[in-house]
Design a protein that fits this description.
Layout (H helix, E strand, L loop, with lengths): L5 H27 L2 H20 L3
Helix pairs in contact: 1-2
Length: 57
């Protein structure tokens, strides 16, 4: 039986929200062809991946 620890769920939710938002901003930047929006979305997605890789419960 696994114990579901609340802070782990919060970090998991943060990673999912940040990654999804990053991909949405990235796609929006590609659609309107603005490099700074593409960069912002890429950084958001990279931060989500880094948090996922570092924070392993």
């Amino acid at each position: 039986m696994a114990i579901d620890w609340f802070p782990d769920r919060g970090v998991r939710r943060l990673v999912i929200v940040l990654g999804t938002a990053g991909l949405a901003v990235l796609a929006g930047g590609i659609a309107v062809d603005l490099l700074w929006i593409i960069g912002l979305g890429a950084w958001m997605f990279m931060i989500a991946v880094i948090i996922e890789l570092i924070y392993r419960p």
